């Protein structure tokens, strides 16, 4: 069974005006799709086509070194984007439920968390992602990963992410990554974050 590009959980224009339809369409139908296509080739070459994406990402070391890099890049690119799309919703807002309590316990307030996460995303050098994760000790942490490295490969449980590759925001926000990050806060799907947190 080949890996396939998942449908978005909303229409391409559903995240307007914060995330424009043109960027969402190209990001999903071109960028995300290319990772899926190249994952299929890389997974075939590495003999892991029969494994789930999660199993591949949590066990990259089992792939021979000469085949590992394209699998890491394209499995990560495939999984990270699907996770990103589901981190967003047209009806985003302030956190609720268990994750709201946990964020306040860890950072004192949602505003302090938001500032720390935004700083991590804004200051990430080059292409990559900022994340809210649960680490191996069960603690909430704000992290970043380069290129398409996935927190699953680092033994972490990801809860929320923002894509800070230029392709994620350049058409609308040009070189001003902080404007994209500010817009992102209007779109966070906290119901989904809570589901991930409680799973
Ligand atoms: Mn992307």
Task: Tell me what the structure shows.
- By secondary structure, the protein is mainly alpha-helical.
- Helix content is about 50%, strand content about 10%.
- The chain folds into two domains: about 20-85, Orthogonal Bundle (Helix Hairpins), CATH 1.10.287.990; about 95-199, minor pseudopilin epsh fold, CATH 3.55.40.20.
- It has eight helices and three strands.
- Strands 2-1-3 form a three-stranded antiparallel β-sheet, sandwiched between helices.
- Helix 1 runs antiparallel to helix 3.
- The longest helix is centred in the first third of the chain and has 26 residues, at about 20-45.
- The chain is globular, with a radius of gyration of 17 Å.
- The two termini are about 25 Å apart.
- The model has no long low-confidence stretch (mean pLDDT about 95).
- It binds manganese (II) ion.
- Manganese (II) ion binds near residues 81, 163, 165 and 167.
- Manganese (II) ion (MN) binds near residues 27, 31, 163, 165 and 168.
Number of helices: 8
Major sheet: size, sense and barrel closure? 3 strands, antiparallel
Looking at this structure, what is the CATH superfamily of the largest domain? Answer: Iron/manganese superoxide dismutase, C-terminal domain
Q: Please give the alpha-carbon distance between the first and last residues.
A: 27 Å
Radius of gyration equals: 17 Å
Order of helices and strands: HHHHHEEEHHH
CATH topology of the largest domain, by name, is minor pseudopilin epsh fold
Bin the strand percentage. Answer: 5-15%
Provide the spatial order of strands within the biggest beta sheet: 2-1-3
């Amino acid at each position: 069974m080949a890996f396939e590009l998942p449908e978005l959980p909303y229409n391409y224009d559903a995240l307007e005006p914060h995330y424009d339809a043109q960027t969402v369409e190209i990001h999903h139908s071109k960028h995300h799709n290319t990772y899926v296509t190249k994952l299929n080739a890389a997974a075939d070459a590495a003999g892991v086509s029969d494994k789930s994406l999660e199993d591949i990402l949590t066990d990259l070391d089992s792939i021979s070194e000469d085949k590992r890099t394209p699998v890491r890049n394209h499995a990560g690119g495939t999984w990270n984007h699907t996770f990103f799309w589901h981190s967003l919703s047209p009806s985003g807002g302030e956190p609720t439920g268990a994750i709201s309590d946990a964020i306040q316990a860890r950072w004192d307030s949602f505003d302090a968390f938001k500032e720390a996460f935004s700083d991590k995303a804004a200051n990430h050098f080059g292409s990559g992602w900022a994340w809210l994760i649960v680490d191996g000790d069960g603690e909430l942490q704000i992290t970043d990963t380069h290129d398409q490295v996935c927190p699953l490969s680092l033994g972490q449980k990801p809860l929320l992410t923002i894509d800070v590759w230029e392709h994620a925001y350049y058409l609308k926000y040009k070189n001003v990554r902080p404007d994209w990050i500010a817009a992102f806060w209007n779109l966070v799907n906290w119901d989904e974050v809570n589901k991930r947190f409680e799973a």
